[in-house]
Amino acid sequence: MPIGDWEIPVLGKNATIAVLVQTHILIATFILGAIIIAPAAEYLGLITKQPRYERFARSLARFVVLLFASGSALAITFVLALITLFPIFFSYLQNIFFWVFLVEAFMFLAVIIILYAWYNVWDKLAYRKSLHVVFGFVAGAIGLLQMTMINAIASYMLTPAEAPATEVGQTFLNPTFIPLNMHRFVGNLSYAGFLIAGWAAWRYLRSVREDDREYYDWMGHWGMIWGFGFLILQPVIGYGYLKAIRESSPEAFNVIMLGDKSWLFNLLMLELAVMGIASVAYFVHRLRFAVRPMPAFRNMAVGALGFTALFSALNLIPSNASLVPQLGLVFADGEDTLIPLGAMYPWKYIGLIGMMLVGFFIIALYLKATAEGFHWGRSSRWSQWALMVSAVTVVLTMMTMGYTRETARRLDNDPGYLIYNCITLEQEIVQEGCPGATDR
User: Fold this and answer.
1) What InterPro entries does the database record attribute to this sequence (predicted)?
2) Whole-angstrom Cα distance, residue 221 to residue 219?
3) How far is CA 402 from the centre of its chain?
């Protein structure tokens, strides 16, 4: 049997890798966001003396410690599957990123040690709280360094540097390395925040004790600040990331923005619209329960909700009548039937920038009200459903974005690449200048 010529029943080896990677990313992304949010909450509890922050931080730390084992097992399984199913590709990848893999291994060990130590000495350092908070932030910093190592590989696969593998600096700092790191750092915090808010909403609806209802109502608010607060940064960061892809891997950019997979952008805009509208509607509702009545703020928030819906609708208009050709959703003359309001310039730019500016406005209003305080435990059921819908939608958004980035290299299988313009899905070197090619 040729090396790596294995076929997985039903799924196939490509889908097997995709399932393992996507599941691992959904878990790992939450962990990376949570080990920043939890120490931040512990620090706020230290300076404000509000016990709910301490309760939240400790509960989240306990959950992260339990979840870390599952994420690690999936990561190891993925690496073993990659070595088994794509051994030639993995050997070239290892030759190019030997130092990255080595640092990643030590970072993995370091984050385990610090994370578990942070949780296990919680009570022992109760009277040295500042030191304990530092432990938490160190765990978060190591997690970010670990993510940086992985992003070097992921970004290189889509936009490889035009330099030999021996040029470690250029290989590491490939064209999309920095935009991808910014995108994922902000995304980690937003993703974790929305999931925390969704879980809090679920517990709020099931709670019968007044103190629990107050705590979970506050927890939903806390998660939403992180979720929506970092979501509104994504349009400008995402634009920078797409611009870097267009300049470095134009064929891949055309696949996801102009080709048969361009419907993925509209799907992302739909998911962004759901999260944006649900979040702003939640903020409007919460302003009713401010300790100091703020009718002017609430009226402005209602206006912001209307503008959010308007800009979201602008983003959802397709550029032509070929909506999802793979499913037969093609109307009129398909790609030849252009929709003026669906053009990227200027309408999509207006929609994205508008959503971001309105988002900054509403979060500023809400944080101002937060400084005055809220009455907790009085939220309506529909507001909690808005949090849960946002949590489900952010998971779907993560899956959509992951599929979009990875499918870009496939170029509709004409040919498909594991490393763009370098190694095909069949693990063949197709370009003489491909890093590692001269090592054969």
Assistant:
1) Cyt-d_ubiquinol_oxidase_su_1
2) 5
3) 9
